[in-house]
């Protein structure tokens, strides 16, 4: 079963504002969008017929049909309840969405639409394995929107090695924000990679789950510029993100996902120096 959730925790503001690149739709338009969604959920071809604005050239295909598809104003994700992690997360960063997150809460929140997630307590022993509770969608990327707290849902949480989080992963996120602040909106796809044999210790919990062995991140602009990265969990903190560049073909082979299904002949023109990398 595919579950679809809409976040509307701050009063009924239109949950599709991000899909239309705006955070200020009228309430009436929001109600219409909600009704439209309920009608379209009855159609088997929902994902193919309805354009999810967080996904440039269509959302990834190939995830388990048992996954929960979660749509929120600032991101979309496909949540795998077996692994207890999203298989992919898609979002768009703009200069207006980035903000100062210093004073914003990072308290994890249970997801109203998916009960089978890891809890805050499940991450409590993560430090013992040099892991920490991290996020696919970063708070600072949406601290400038009314929906910043949506990043704290546990469906957006994942166990990531501390060294990776503070090293190459952070370095790429900083470079992306730097690019966006120079005037270029960016679409991002991120998710886990699992090897045949687990390479990272599991969390101390009785819940069935899998800690990712690696992560992918695909960064693309509407002009067709893009770069692909593959982050092994055991990447040392000093490694630069540019040393971890990959290809769409490699990530598709590792994950079984089909990226950009509405543009199957897409050829990315590398972002290169725009994200701090030399060609």
> Radius of gyration, Cα only, in angstroms?
18 Å
Q: What is the residue-averaged pLDDT?
A: 85
Please state how the strands of the largest beta sheet are arranged side by side.
1-2-3-4-7-8-9
Helix/sheet category = alpha+beta
- pLDDT < 50 stretches: 6-48
Q: Termini distance?
A: 44 Å
**Order of secondary-structure elements:** EHHEEEEEHHEEEH
Main sheet properties: 7 strands, mixed
* Oligomeric organization of the protein chains: single chain
Total strand segments: 9
Strand portion, in percent? 15-25%
The shape, in one word, is: globular
Bin the helical content. 10-25%
Our count of helices gives 5
Textual characterization of the structure:
This protein has 279 residues and is α+β, with helices and mostly antiparallel strands. 16% of the residues lie in helices and 20% in strands. It has five helices and nine strands. It has helices at residues 27-40, 46-49, 162-166, 168-181, 248-255; strands spanning 4-6, 68-72, 75-80, 85-93, 131-135, 157-161, 186-193, 214-220, 226-232. The strands form two sheets. It has a seven-stranded mixed β-sheet with strand order 1-2-3-4-7-8-9, with helices on both faces. A two-stranded antiparallel ribbon has the order 5-6.
Short description:
With 279 residues, the protein is an alpha+beta fold. The chain is built from 5 helices and 9 strands.
């Amino acid at each position: 079963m595919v579950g679809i959730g809409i976040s509307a925790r701050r009063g009924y503001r239109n949950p599709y504002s991000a899909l239309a690149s705006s955070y200020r739709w009228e309430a009436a338009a929001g109600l219409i969008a909600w009704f439209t969604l309920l009608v379209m959920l009855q159609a088997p071809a929902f994902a193919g017929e309805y354009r999810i604005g967080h996904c440039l050239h269509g959302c990834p295909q190939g995830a388990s049909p048992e996954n929960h598809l979660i749509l929120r104003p600032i991101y979309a994700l496909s949540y795998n309840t077996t692994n207890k992690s999203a298989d992919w997360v898609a979002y768009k960063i703009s200069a207006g969405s980035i903000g100062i997150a210093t004073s914003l809460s990072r308290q994890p929140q249970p997801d109203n639409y998916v009960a089978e997630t890891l809890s805050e307590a499940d991450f409590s022993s993560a430090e013992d394995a040099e892991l920490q509770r991290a996020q696919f969608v970063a708070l600072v990327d949406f601290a400038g929107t009314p929906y910043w707290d949506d990043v704290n849902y546990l469906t957006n949480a994942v166990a990531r090695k501390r060294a990776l989080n503070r090293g190459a992963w952070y370095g790429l996120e900083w470079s992306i924000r730097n690019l966006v602040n120079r005037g270029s909106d960016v679409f991002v796809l991120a998710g886990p990679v699992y090897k045949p044999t687990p390479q990272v210790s599991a969390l101390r919990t009785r819940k069935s789950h899998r800690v990712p062995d690696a992560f992918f991140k695909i960064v693309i602009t509407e002009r067709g510029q893009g770069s692909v990265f593959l982050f092994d969990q055991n990447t040392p903190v000093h490694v630069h993100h540019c040393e971890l560049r990959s290809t769409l073909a490699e990530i598709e082979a590792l994950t079984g996902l089909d990226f950009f299904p509405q543009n199957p002949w897409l050829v990315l023109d590398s972002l290169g120096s725009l994200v701090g990398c030399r060609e």
